[in-house]
Specification:
The protein is an alpha+beta fold and 309 residues long. Helix content is 37%, strand content 21%. It contains twelve helices and 13 strands. The chain has helices at 12-28, 42-49, 67-75, 84-91, 93-102, 115-120, 127-134, 160-168, 210-214, 231-246, 280-287, 292-302; strands spanning 2-5, 34-37, 54-56, 110-114, 138-142, 152-154, 173-178, 182-190, 193-194, 198-202, 219-222, 251-259, 264-270. Strands 8, 9, 10, 11, 12 and 13 form a six-stranded antiparallel β-sheet that branches. It has a four-stranded antiparallel β-sheet with strand order 4-7-5-6, with helices on both faces. Helix 1 crosses helix 12. The longest helix is centred in the first third of the chain and has 17 residues, at 12-28.
Amino acid sequence: MAVLKGGRSLERQVSLRSGARVEDALGRLGHDAVPIDVGLDFIRRLREVRPEVAFIAMHGRDGEDGTVQELLEILGVPYTGSGVLACVRATDKVLAKHLLTEAEIPTPNFFAFNETAFRDLGAADALAAIEERLEFPIVVKPSSQGSALGIKFARSAADLPAALVAAFSYDSKVLLERYVNGRDLAVSILDGEPLPVVEAAPEGDAFYDFQARYEIGRTRFICPADLPAGFTEQAHEQALATYRLLGCHAFARVDLMLGEDGELTVLEANPIPGFTETSLLPQAAEATGISFDALVGRILELALEPTAA
C-alpha cells in the first residue's frame, strides 16, 4: 500500500507529519506501507509500487481538492476518504457556503469575489455595501486554503484593502464572512457517525490560526466539549447534515462556531483532517476509545467501500 503525503501545498509540512504517523500506525498493524511524497514523479512511483490501496494523508492543494483522487481513479487505485466531487465541494469554501445556504444549514453571512471582479468589474466600489451588511469585524479568507492559512480580520474599513490583498496572495477567489465571536468547535465523522465534539481554546486571546493548530501548547483542546444542554446534539446534527450535503465518505471534520448569542453555525468541512499530534480527528476518536492505530485501520477498511460522491 502507498501513503501519499507532502506535495506542493502550503500545508506540506503538516502533511509530512500526518503521513509519518499514518505510516507508523500501518506498520504496527502489519501492513507494508510505502511512502510517496507526491510530486512530478507521482504517476511513475504509483506504477512502480502498484499499491492495492492509497492512504491519502495530504492536506490542501492537490490532496484535498480532488486532484490526486482523480488521478487515482484513472489508474484504478482505491483510496481513503471522500471522492472527487465531495473534495471539490468541500475545498472550495465559497461553493460550500452557497450549498450550505441553499440547504438552510446555518452558516455566517458572507460575500465572495474573484480577482476579475476587482480588476475588471469595479468590485471595490461595492465594499461599502458589504461592510454595512456584514458589519465589522469581517473575516477575509482565501477560498481554497486550509489550516487557517491566509485568514485576516478587518476590524474597520481601513483594514479591508490590506486583508483582501493578503487573501488574494493565497487564492484567486476570496470570501468575506461575518465574524462570529464565540467558541471554536469541531465534529469529526467516522463511517457516518459523529464523534465527540472538540473545542479548541487558544491560549490567551489568540486566534485559532496555523500556529495555534499545530504547535503543541498553543491551544487547549477539550474533548468532549462542555456545552450547554442540547448543543452537542445540535452540533452533531449540523455536522452530519453538512457531511451528507457535500457527499463526504468514510471520514471528515466539520468546523463550527458557537456564538456568544447562542447561535451554532457551520464554518466549513475538511475532507482530509490531519493526523498530527494536535489534530482533532484522532483526539475525538480517542475520546470514544478508538486508538490512533484502530482509527487508521478503520479508515483503510472503508477505502474499499464505494464513495458517496
